[in-house]
Amino acid sequence: MANELTSRETDYAQWYNELILKGGLADYSAVRGCMVIKPYGYTLWENMRDVLDKMFKDTGHVNAYFPLFVPKSFLEKEEGHAEGFAKECAVVTHYRLKTDPNNKGKLMVDPEAKLEEELIVRPTSEAIIWNAYKDWIQSYRDLPLLINQWANVVRWEMRTRLFLRTAEFLWQEGHTAHATAEEAIEEAEKMLHVYGDFVENYMALPVIKGIKTPNERFAGALETYCIEALMQDGKALQAGTSHFLGQNFAKAFDVKYLTKENKQEFVWATSWGVSTRLIGALVMAHSDDQGLVMPPKIAPLQVVIVPIYKGPEQKALVDEKVDGIVAGLKANGISVKYDDAENTRPGWKFAEYELKGVPVRIAIGQKDIENGVVEVARRDTKEKQSIPAADLIEHVKFLMTDIQQNLYNKALAYRDAHVTEVNSWEEFKQVLHEKGGFISAHWDGTAETEDKIKEEAKATIRCIPLDNPLEAGVCVFSGKPSTQRVLFAMAY
RNA sequence: CGGGACGUAGCGCAGCCCGGUAGCGCGCUUGCAUGGGGUGCAAGAGGUCGCUAGUUCGAAUCUAGUCGUCCCGACCA
Question: In the CATH scheme, what is the homologous superfamily, with its name and number, of domain A12-69+133-286?
Answer without folding.
Answer: Bira Bifunctional Protein; Domain 2 (3.30.930.10)
